[in-house]
Amino acid sequence: MNSDTLTDALSRLYPADRILRKPGELAPYESDALTALRRRPLAVVIPQTQNEVIETVRLCHRYETPFVARGSGTSLSGGSLPVPDGIVIALNRLNRIIRLDPQERIAIVEPGVVNLDISRAAAPYDLHYAPDPSSQQICTIGGNVAFNSGGAHCLKYGMTSNHILSIKAVLPDGEVVQLGSESAEGVGPDLPGLFVGSEGLFGIALEIAVRLLPRPQKYHTLLAAYRTLEAAGDAVTRVVASGLLPGALEIMDRLAIQAAEAAVHPNYPQGAEAVLIVELEGEPEEVAEETRRLDEVIRASGAYEVRVAQNAADRLRIWKGRKSAFSAVGRLSSDYIVQDGVVPRGRLGEALAEIRRLSGQYGLRVANVFHAGDGNLHPLILYDGRAAGALERAEKLAGEILQLCIRYGGSITGEHGVGMEKRDYLPRMYGEADMDMMWKLRCAVDPRQIANRGKMFPGGEVSSPFSTGMHPLERAGVISRE
Length: 482
Description:
By secondary structure, the protein is an alpha+beta fold. It folds into five domains: 3-90, 2-Layer Sandwich (Uridine Diphospho-n-acetylenolpyruvylglucosamine Reductase, domain 2), CATH 3.30.43; 97-214, Uridine Diphospho-n-acetylenolpyruvylglucosamine Reductase, domain 3; 218-327, 2-Layer Sandwich (Alpha-Beta Plaits), CATH 3.30.70.2190; 333-407, Alpha-Beta Plaits (2-Layer Sandwich); 432-475, no CATH class. It is built from 17 helices and 20 strands. The strands form five sheets. The protein has a seven-stranded antiparallel sheet with strand order 15-12-14-13-18-20-16, with helices on both faces. The chain has a five-stranded antiparallel sheet with strand order 5-6-10-8-9. α1 runs antiparallel to α3 (50-62), α8 packs antiparallel against α13 and α13 (348-362) packs antiparallel against α14 (390-407). The longest helix has 18 residues, at 390-407. It is globular. Mean pLDDT is 91; it is low at 462-482.
């Protein structure tokens, strides 16, 4: 259908200042945090109400035009990359905390609410929202739901999926559905769990019921410095093997430390090849006992310097260095790829040694920042975008790291999603039957593939089957061929 007809319809729905079509207006939306990929959408619309989102999706369905939902654009896998000649639905103005019930420990929020703002709103009731991605000061809960985000404290508290009770969503055909309920005791299939992590392929979340937890009464935050990265990785294995369950277990290597020092000056120990951050939290008596056991483990791990936060300011300084690491690496290189994969904890030291070898092989520096407690690696691959072939070499190294994760029995993504970046690696992690089932499910919800078209699946288009023989769409009964 004629795209001008769609834009005319959108112009009747939105005032001129909330529908963007000029090149200069579209430029900020051409990429997300994976800036190596850029595409220009047909238009960007900025809804202020749920009804505007619903009507926009219905128009896109009527005119068979793809749409991409976008929050703050912090996706590191190209998950909110526009579709050419498609519509970007920018959700930042749907930012109401509709209801916060401290007795039931629940908050109902719109998708444009910033992650950290939920905890700020819950703080007067000594509650908080546990998932804490590094971008929590700007990332939105809608994006967290789309990619099942985690954060530094996911070892103890789990991912976004562990904290979502219900979702009101608009499906790609414009139907509005309620998935789950506000009750902590779910009945029937876990439909919110199906929606969380679907990377926008199933539609757009309009209201999200999140679980709130009591704020820890006491923290014990420890920073240990090591002469080798492998020693820090092995220390993680020791901590977990001791039976302790810290709130967080994080590692930064020498390059990441240098970047953080240049950007936010956390004053980490001099000469460290790696630092390990361990945070215990809970009731004072529990933390006191765990502190004694943790000290024994760290002393035996070979750390050459150990620091313990003496107050809230110390704790925030330690975490500021870690939370700023991704952006701080820009101090070392204007161009870099933030990779995301998972290996079993027991092979963490081995994986880090292999990444170091690959770094030397490709002649590219790699800064390692990761959630060590669950083996979630975040290698940052530095390259010079002005040099011919540098991006391609960096992407190849990133692919080697993903294959390493698969080979070690891990995953190609911990929390950043597949998006555009990792589509070709999905069939290497899953078998043909698994891929076929995922494709059937995607097409059952969205036969026209207008919701975030092209993401997650190799090729991403109707003409790109995953196996030989009958096309997955034919097997799903969505299309037929005479």
